[in-house]
Amino acid sequence: MSQKHILLIDDEKHISTVVKTCLVTLGGWVVLTADSGKEGLLKARQEQPDAILLDIMMPDMNGITLLQELRKEPKTQNIPVLLLTAKAQMSDRDEYTHLDIAGVITKPFEPLKLAEQIAEVLGWR
Amino acid sequence: MTRQISELIGLLKSDGTLLEVNQSALDSTDIRKIDAVGRFFWEMPWWNYSPEIQDQLKKAIAQAAKGESVQCEIADVDSFQLLIKPIQEEAGQMRFLMIEGRPNDRKRKKHIVNGTRDALVQNEQELGQEPGMIGSIAQLKDIFNSAIANIGSFRVFANGDREYLFFSPGSEKVFGYSAQELMADQSLWMSRVHPEDMETIMMPLVKRFFTDSLGDSPGPIEYRFYRKDGSVRWVSSLYTSQPDSASDSRIVTVVSIDITEQKQAEAALQNQLMHEQLVTEISQYIRQSLNLKEVLRRTVERVREYLQTDRVIIFRFEPDWQGITVMESVGPGWMSIQSRTIDDPCFRERYIEPYRKGRVSTLSDIHTAGLEACYVELLEGMQIKANIVVPILQDKQLWGLLIAHHCTAPRQWQAEEIKLLQQLSNQLSIAIQQSELYQQIHYELLERRQIQTALQESEARFRSLSDSAPVGIFQTNADGTCSYVNPHLQALTGLNLEECLGYGWAQAIHPEDREAVMADWQSAVQNKLNLRKEFRFLTSQGNVCWVFTYAEIIRSPMGEILGYVGTSQDITQRKLTEATLQQLNQELELKVQQRTAKLEQLLEQERVLGAVTQHVRRSLDLDEILNAAVTEVRQVLQADRAIIFRLTSEGAGVVIKESVLPEYPVTLEMRFPDECFPAECYEYYQHGSPRIVLDVVVDEWAECLAQFMENVGVKTKIVAPIVQTGEDGSPIVWGLLIVHSCAYHREWLHSEAELVQQISNQLAIAIKQSELHQQLQSSETRLRNAFDSAVNGMAMLTLDGHFMRVNPALCQLLGYSDSELLQVPIQSVIQPEDLNLYRDNVEDLKEGRIPNLQLEGALLHKIGEFRWVISSISLVRDYRGEPLYFVVQIQDMTERRALEQMKSEFISIVSHELRTPLTSIRGSLGLLASGLLDSQPDTTKQMIEIASIESERLVRLVNDILDLERLENKKVTLNYQWYSAEELVQQAIESMRSVASENDIRLNVVTADKQIWIDPDRIIQILVNLISNAIKFSEPSSTICIKAACIEAQAQDARTISQAERQKLGQAKEEDQQQAESRADEDSTGLQMLFQVTDQGKGIPADKLEIIFDRFQQVNASDSRDKGGTGLGLSICRNIVQQHGGRIWAESILGQGSTFYFTLPIASR
Q1: CA B1020 to centroid of chain Cα atoms
Q2: Three-state secondary structure string covering B774-817
Q3: pLDDT of residue B523
Q4: Element (H, E) at B7
Q5: Given CB atoms, is B933 within the 8 Å cutoff of chain A?
Q6: Which residue of A39, B364, B429, B520 sits 20 to 30 Å from the alpha carbon of A107, by its own alpha carbon?
Q7: Strands B731-741 and B716-725: what pairing?
Q8: Cβ of A112 under 8 Å from any chain B Cβ?
Q9: B901, closest residue in chain A (CA to CA)
Q10: Which pLDDT score is estimated for B144?
């Protein structure tokens, strides 16, 4: 099995750094990062990662819009997407149920279990 | 006689039948000899057929037949002389008569007689006739000359050899063999005699051979003879014998003539006779019998017998041309078709019409007649081989058919047979007609008998009734004279029957009535009219009796007047009753008139009372009711004045309504002091009873009014109190209804006083109603005001959901006008998904399952927006508990809901904002703590920095959130003090100077030194925040300008700003804004401190200028991370400024920079 590539899209640079460190260290995956929605969409097209970790609250293009864009394009429509979001209220969670996503990971997450959580959701282990 | 004949010579039988006649006599007629032979001599047309001549001839011939010659003269046009002579037979029997005739001319007679004598003498000798006869025969020379040629004679020896001695030449004419042939073959003659007649011929012949006596001559013998050509002829031979001197034998002389034609004529005659007999018999029978069936039966039997045929029937047609065999005679062995109905379309189509025209049909052989197969089949079905069909006509209509059937073999029908049937058919027609007539007469007779019987019975009944009737009955002749009176009428008149007859009855009429009765009776009789009349009889005993008499014309069936029949009924009792009744009637009439007048008056009063009552019920306008009351009551009582006197306080009052005739003074609005109304009077009126005052001057209760009454011309009056019930139930005299008589001292009736009182009572009701109405109106007005000015939407709804009434708040809530909303059902303003819930709940409410209803949901605004509301619905029911309508109260929750939503969103944002730094902190610390990064010092360091930075961010955020929460909830107590504005700015700058330097930014300060009443820490917090933001968004080497100036707060400016702000601010901020505006107004006359911080940064888009003061609403969300902001700073600033009574706002030009302003009142109240 080749090494998994994960694209992390989040405007919070500190979070991106922490997540990347977690996944590289504990998952052994290649982690690509994007600081904005637009950049994330571009990289998703270019890199066609095995999975995408996606924040919702982003200034230029929020995660939900980005997800819709990904699903429109043949290249990206089958890439599994996990939401990584601090919008974790009950009312927010209801909104996720109808989205074409593999799962939701809420912020703050358990750093040592993040990679395992993702692998389990994506069936990588 | 057709033509003149010169001579007549003929041979007759003794009965007068013509056997032979001379040709010249025949030539004068058109009759052939063959037709003449066999007819009676007197029927021959030589003379006119007068009965006298015929009778004369018959008598002459009868006389001659007795043996004597008769001479007679026929007295026709020309006189004709006849001589009839008998020709005696040997036996002395009369056999023939010779007749000779000629016109009555002597010379001519002689000539004829002389001319014929010689020829006859010779013939006489040959015939051996007696000399006495010869004399006359000799005169018939010309006949016998021709006759000789036709007579065959021979002589034969009367011995056993029968040797024929001679055959005369005429033998050939008679026997068909020549004399020579007969002589040559001696046995020929005998062999040709018909075998059946051999004996007949032989006996006299043999006898003749042996006798010479003429006395026993057998006379002429008739027999049949076969001629040479095979034909059979009848021959008549006369035998005479005489001794033969030569042979001692006797010679028989036989003279023969051919009588075949005579025989045939006889047979025909015989047939005709039978034929006529049959017709006669049938016709006689018809005349004797009226039994048609028997006539028919006899006819068919006799016809069949006569025709010697197999079946004879009479067939009768039905109207539809079917038919039935009504009578039949059928021979043994042949089928009967009696009573058989024959309906054969084939027969009908082809044969009915000819029969109807009287045509006879004969068929000699049905198979050779060329008939249609169907007809042949029909005939065969009845075994018919030949037939005769003769129609029986009745009044030119085809009644039926007389039919003869021959079944044995085909048959050639004879003309006479057909003729017979025709004649019989005619007779049958007569019989049928006769029978029908008989039937008709029979029925008529029967009917007449019944009528006669009925008449007799009727007559008997009439008499019986008449005698016992309890009513007078009479009968008169056409002239009016009496012909009968019954016992009852006799009793009424006191006269007996005899006395009554004629005009006797008139004497019983009452003298006073008599003239009129008689005149009417005469008139009725003359004019042929019925009469009805009532009059009196006066009997001799002096009894008067009233009668009603009715006389009716009776007529014969032809319409002729026979007389009158009538009745007289005793009506005395009735007349007496009538008189009594009339008297009673008159009395009653009078009473009725009196009563009616009274009733009319009462009715009028009732009407007025009714009118006033109606007024009271219909109208709530008291003024109008009172006006109507005085007008009506004055008019109906025909009074001079009617007033309503209102008691204002005890005893005092004023005239408030008046209706008065023009000639009397007006009292309206006249006031009366209290002393005029004594207490006892008031108490009296409290009982609600009217008072009649017949003399106002001596009215003890209104003594003080006497002068007034005189002044206004009152003579008498009725006073009726208008009484109300007080709150404690005691009666209160509200006023008085008073009716005046001014013209005279009218004596008022109690009924009139009652009426006035009743009207007063109605007015009391009207007054009460009016008061209640006013109360109700004011109550309703209050309710309406409450309804209309309610903050919440309110409505009344019909049970099916239509608005009955809506208040302005609801109209505003839903965006409709009042009238528009009344057209809209509530269902159309409820959002569709809530409709079922609404309906279910309303149903529960109606059914009483729930007491009231509260629903939260969205209603549709006219412009299409939803307004979030809480609706409270309750149901109003009538006294029986039946639902009437809904009362709905609708509270607009839209703004509250928006606030709640904002709150929820705020929590969501706060949660997000808190979780974000926490995620970095937890992640980095988690990794560090796990030791996984121990071998990666750079990463470890990075993680520690992240944890540190994000921790600070979290602290700031938490502080700001708490700060803002305290400010918004007014939990922060501002520490007001007089403080220098300049000092405030300086302190803020000092705290920011190092940061500005770090970012290479200059701070330019311009301040006015002015003491202001503020919380300095909080104002410095604002300034620091604004300067901090300016630094964050400024490029290095740029300048930030901070100013503080004292300005005159102008009301207009302040308001303008306020309005501008309102437009920009969201609804949620409206309340805050109002507060700010209020402060601005308060300070309109004071001074304000205006602070401003201007940067040269990238600027703020116009649409963000307001919302940047909201929580977490940075221009760019990443600003909080990049610039270290929490997104709450400006919200906190605004809150502090507002709490100080100031205002904060921003102005910006993109790319050039932004200025943040805030004002503070110099001195807050």
Answers
A1: 106
A2: HHHHHHHHHHHHHHHHCCCEEEEECCCCEEEEECHHHHHHHCCC
A3: 92
A4: none
A5: yes
A6: A39
A7: antiparallel
A8: yes
A9: A91
A10: 52
pLDDT exceeds cutoff 70 at B157: no
Q: For residue B865, what are its two tokens?
A: 């927006």
Task: Report pLDDT digits (tens) over B891-928.
Answer: 999 888 888 888 888 788 888 888 989 999 999 999 99
Which residue has tokens 């503020």? Answer: B1014
A113 touching B, CB under 8 A?
no
Judging contacts by C-beta atoms under 8 Å, the chain B residues touching residue A63 are none
Number of alpha carbons in the 13 Å side-chain half-sphere of residue B963: 21
- Other Cβ atoms closer than 10 A to B614: 12
Starting at the edge strand found earlier in the chain, the sheet holding B1039-1048 runs B1002-1007, B1039-1048, B1087-1094, B1153-1161, B1143-1149
Q: Does B927 touch chain A (CB under 8 A)?
A: yes
Contacts of B950 in chain A (CB under 8 A): 14
Decide: B1130 and B1137 in contact? Cβ < 8 Å. Answer: no
Distance between CA atoms of residues B1086 and B399, nearest Å? 148
Q: How much is the CA Rg of chain A, to the nearest whole Å?
A: 13
At B167-190, the pLDDT tens digits run 877 788 888 888 888 888 888 888
The H helix count followed by the E strand count for chain A is 5, 5
* Backbone torsions φ then ψ of B1050, nearest 5 degrees: -95, 135
| pLDDT digit string, tens, across residues B916-964 | 899 999 999 999 999 988 999 999 999 999 999 999 989 988 988 888 8
| Residue the block writes with tokens 């001057």 | B697
Note whether A22 contacts B924, CB cutoff 8 Å: no
Query: A116 in contact with B at a CB cutoff of 8 Å?
Result: no
Q: What is the pLDDT of residues B220-272, one digit of tens each?
A: 788 888 988 888 888 888 777 777 666 666 777 777 888 888 888 888 788 88
Residue A113's pLDDT is 92
Any idea which of A13-27, B257-271, B900-914, B1111-1125 has the lowest mean pLDDT?
B1111-1125
For A90, which residue in chain B has the nearest alpha carbon?
Answer: B908
Q: Which of B1032, B1041, B992, B1026 is nearest to B1131 (CA)?
A: B1026
User: For chain B, give me the number of helices (H) and strands (E)?
Assistant: 34, 39
- Which of the two residues, B874 and B1124, has the higher pLDDT score? B874
- Print the SS3 string covering B640-706: CEEEEEEEEECCEEEEEEEEECCCCCCCCCCEECHHHCCHHHHHHHHCCCCEEECCHHHCHHHHHHH
Backbone angles phi, psi at B1040, to 5 degrees: -115, 125
Closest CA to B951 of B959, B1117, A83, A88: B959
The CA distance from B916 to the nearest CA of chain A, in Å, is 6
pLDDT of residue B922: 93
Q: What's the residue count for chain A?
A: 125
* Residue among A21, A57, A107 minimizing CB distance to B927: A21
Q: How far apart are CA B968 and CA B973, in angstroms?
A: 12
The predicted structure's pLDDT at residue B1143: 92
Mutate to test the interface with A, among B918, B919, B1112 (most CBs of A within 10 A): B919
Provide long-range contacts, Cβ within 8 A and 24+ apart, for B784-793.
Answer: B790/B889, B792/B889, B792/B890, B792/B891, B792/B892, B793/B869, B793/B888, B793/B889, B793/B890, B793/B891, B793/B892
Pick from B1144, B1142, B1137: nearest CA to B1064: B1144
Q: Which residues of A touch B926 (CB under 8 A)?
A: 110-112
Among A22-31, B87-96, B559-568, B828-837, the least confident range: B87-96
Interface mutation vs chain B, best among A14, A15, A91, most B CBs within 10 Å: A14
Neighbouring CB atoms inside 10 A of B821's CB total 22
State mean pLDDT over B822-832: 88
B949 inside 8 A of chain A by CB? yes
